[in-house]
Design goal:
It contains 7 helices and no strands. By secondary structure, the chain is an all-alpha fold. The site of heme C has 23 residues, from helix 3, helix 6 and helix 7. The site of heme C (HEC) has 23 residues, from helix 3, helix 6 and helix 7.
C-alpha cells in the first residue's frame, strides 16, 4: 500500500509507538491497525488546504492592520479592505470543516476533533469571530486609528485566540 509520508503520519505513528512501549508493546499486529486508523485511505479532503490558505490570508490581513498602527500615519486604504477581508473569510469557515477532517483522523491539519464533538461551541466561536470582525470594520469606518487599535485587541482575543485555544493544536 503506497502512502505519502507526511509529518502528521509520522507523529501519529510515533505516538502509537510510545503508547505501545508504555503498555508493554504487544507486537501482535495491532500496529498495522492503529496505523490505518491514523492515516485514512484516499486523498485528504480539499477543504483542509482551502481552510489553511483561508486562515493564512486572515493572518496576513490582521498583520497588515497591526503594521499600519505602528506607522505615524496609519493608512485606511490598507486597514479598511483588510478588515473586510477578515470578515468575509471568517464567514467561509462553516463550509471548510467537513466531518472527520481532523488531526486525530490522521490528516496534516491543526484542526482538533473537538470541533466535531462540540459543533455548537465551534459554531459559536465562528460567530464570535465574525462579530469581532464586524466591530473592526466599524472601527475602520471611523477613520480613527485608536478605535482600530482597540478592536485589534478585541478581535485577537475574542475572535482568533478564543477559537485557537479550544479548537486548534496548541503549538505556540
Ligand atoms: C472559529 C475558530 C477560529 C477562528 C475564529 C480563527 N481561527 Fe485561526 N485557525 C483555526 C483552526 C481550527 C486552524 C487550523 C486549521 C488547519 O490546520 O486545518 C486555524 C489556523 C490558523 C492559522 C494557520 C494557518 C496555516 O495552516 O498556515 C492562522 C495564521 C490563523 N489561524 C490565524 C487566525 C487569525 C489571525 C484569526 C482572527 C482574526 C483566526 N485565525 C480566527 C480556528 C480559528
Amino acid at each position: 500500500m503506497a502512502r505519502t509520508p507526511s509529518l502528521s503520519v509520522f507523529a501519529a505513528v510515533s505516538a502509537f509507538a510510545l503508547l505501545a512501549a508504555c503498555s508493554g508493546g504487544a507486537g501482535n499486529g495491532a500496529e498495522e491497525t492503529a496505523e490505518e486508523t491514523a492515516a485514512p485511505a484516499g486523498d485528504a479532503p480539499a477543504e483542509i488546504k482551502q481552510r489553511q490558505d483561508n486562515f493564512e490570508a486572515i493572518g496576513d490581513s490582521f498583520k497588515a492592520i497591526r503594521e499600519q498602527l505602528e506607522t505615524d500615519a496609519p493608512d485606511f486604504a490598507v486597514i479598511t479592505p483588510a478588515a473586510a477581508d477578515i470578515n468575509e473569510r471568517l464567514k467561509r469557515l462553516p463550509d471548510l470543516f467537513p466531518a472527520g477532517s481532523s488531526m486525530e483522523a490522521g490528516y496534516d491539519t491543526e484542526a482538533l476533533a473537538v470541533i466535531w464533538e462540540d459543533p455548537e461551541g465551534f459554531a459559536k466561536a465562528i460567530e464570535n469571530g465574525i462579530a469581532a470582525s464586524e466591530d473592526m470594520m466599524a472601527a475602520a469606518a471611523t477613520g480613527d486609528p485608536e478605535a482600530v487599535r482597540g478592536q485589534v485587541g478585541n478581535l485577537g482575543k475574542n475572535g482568533c485566540k478564543a477559537c485557537h485555544d479550544k479548537y486548534r493544536v496548541d503549538d505556540d
